[in-house]
Amino acid sequence: MDLERSPLARPFPDIPPIGGVTLRVARAHYRDWDRADLTFVELVPETVVAGVFTQNVCSSSEVELGREQVKLGHARALIVNAGNSNAFTGYRGREAVEQIMAQVAAHLDCAPSDVFVSSTGVIGVPLPKDKARDGVANVLNATPVSWEDATNAIGTTDTFAKGAITAAMVGEHRVAFAGIIKGSGMIAPDMATMLGYIFTDAAVEPAFLQHCLSVANKRTFSCITVDSDTSTSDTVLAFATAKAGNAPLTSFDDPGADAFMAAMEDMCRQLAHLVVRDGEGAQKFISVSVSGAADDESARRVGLAIANSPLVKTAIAGGDANWGRVVMAVGKAGEPADRDKLSIAFGGIWAARDGLPVANYDEAPVAKHLEGREVDIAVDLGMGEGRATIWTCDLTHGYISINADYRS
Q: Fewest C-beta atoms under 10 Å: which of 97, 159, 283, 310?
């Protein structure tokens, strides 16, 4: 399936090497395409890992195993298969994952539990064990590749490679972050997005790394949606190699811990936004800011109700400043709200205030705002201090075309 590059795409950044991380790719031929579709990330011994995973109860064996592996807190390798999600495949799917883990572990002389596996693509087809075995054999000694090459190899319906960089000062040491992600459709995370991987050379204790990732995830990945569908394979993993030389971070009492947390959240937000910008068929990047809610979680739920509404998303796609659809979405969210306190704005221009249309409201500047690629919706519930921002995209004919043809 040939997909046109998203008009919201961002150029791939110049990501420098991260100490202790080596990237390799190969062709396992999981689908009939002329590209690498198996990625191998080798990590130095003593690398620490944290992760967040989908809440979809039909999750893959990769997710089930990953949830248990992150509890151990260490990793030596990551394998990513593209083109086949290996979800809803029973014991055959699990056998394929365990085969990959054992094969890589034998090569690295480590425990199979140190090898993390992710798969993405079509649901309901067992990962071919012969193709996986040959692909892994080819990738283990392949020539190292760039971050962009690795990112392209993990994609499916992505139209551009998605990567991000940031850094933080931890004591006297500069610690670097690099992140890559894939995702375009089936995006309505209960935890994260499709497949995302964050690498840092910081020294961090496993429990603190997990805490930072979980907090950042709640404010970023769990605040994006493309189509209200949560994948069976959603995974975000963070790896810390300790090559920066800083004293290991154990809590927020440590010097530089706040800076590390800020960098982690910045990285997660960058990656989350890139997924929305590549939403299947997307033409507009939409920010939904909710304030005045009973609490932050209530604000998040209201924001998601707006961002997931097909009526709101198609109105934005058509440039229709139909704020009544936002009223509808707020009302159906099931959260505390009062019609007579509700205010709605597009692009900073209030269309309704305190439950009433604004007197002498001029729709022309709002319509002009909706013509752009970046659309801002603000909602003030007038109920309390809760606030949240949700990021989504419009819903166009392109989404239907991509998903109607996905398996062909």
A: 310
The rounded mean pLDDT for the chain is: 91
Residue 193 annotated in active site: yes
Find the catalytic residue in 120, 193, 235, 241: 193
Tokens 């990945």 locate to: 221
Cα(323)–Cα(312) distance, rounded to whole angstroms? 8
Question: Is 117 in contact with 62 (CB distance < 8 Å)?
Answer: yes
**Beta-sheet strand order (sheet of 285-293):** 356-357, 349-353, 343-346, 374-380, 285-293, 386-393
Segment 1-19 shows an average pLDDT of: 90
Q: Which residue type does 106 have?
A: A
pLDDT at 404 over 60: yes
What is d(CA 203, CA 278) in angstroms, rounded to the nearest whole number?
Answer: 33
Cβ neighbours of residue 17 under 8 Å, at least 6 residues apart?
Answer: none
* pLDDT one-digit tens code per residue, 178-208: 999 998 655 455 544 469 999 999 999 999 9
Q: Tell me the one-letter amino acid at 100.
A: I
| 91 pLDDT more than 60 | yes
Cβ partners under 8 Å of residue 181, min gap 6: 151, 162, 163, 193, 194, 195, 196, 197, 271, 274, 275
Q: Per the structure block, which two tokens stand in for 139? A: 């990738």
Taken as a whole, the chain contains a residue count of 408
Nearest-angstrom CA–CA distance, 250 and 237? 19
Strands 285-293 and 386-393: antiparallel
pLDDT (tens digit per residue) in 360-395: 899 999 999 999 999 999 999 999 999 999 999 998
| Sign of torsion over alpha carbons 323, 327, 332, 334 | positive
- Residue 391, beta-bridge partner list: 224, 287
What pLDDT was estimated at residue 157?
Answer: 80
Helix (H) or strand (E) holding 236: strand 235-240
CA distances from 387 to 188, 208, 308 (A): 19, 26, 18
**CA 370 → CA 304, 315, 344, distances in Å?**
20, 10, 15
d(CA 353, CA 356): 5
